[in-house]
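Quick start: what a row looks like.
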Amino acid sequence: MLVKEIMRSTVVTIRPDATLRQAAELMLEHNINGLPVVDDARRVVGIIGLKDILRAPTPSIMQAQVSRMGALETKAEALDSTTIERVMARTVFTVKEDDSVMTAVAIIVNQGLHPVPVLRGGQLVGVVSRADAVRAILHQPSAPATITATEC
């Protein structure tokens, strides 16, 4: 099965100069965990996820721990004052439409990333989420079980 058979071609994206608050609102509104960050030519320049929102204002690359002693107000202020560009993940693993679904599954599982952007000619044309990958596996016929009879 190919990526183009399971990808979502309607993609919610965000620009690098948007705020973390705007990203969080978009993700919650569309019930998604991450957004491709795109430039004017729809080239993917990063990924922002709910985890990045929770970690703000620390950049994604730093893998910083969040203190239990922090205040929600401080986090809320960071959402308004921090741009996507400042904290987004800049290393983006992508697939092409004609790649195998297992290529996307490997990125999701091995890299812990989702959604996986789907590119055509360097431009974003879709995404594959964890749910899309699981749905593809569920709809794939499995090998029939072999049943053997034994006498007692």
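That is the whole record. Residues 3-138 form a domain with the CBS-domain fold (CATH 3.10.580.10). The CA atoms of residues 35 and 48 lie 5 Å apart.
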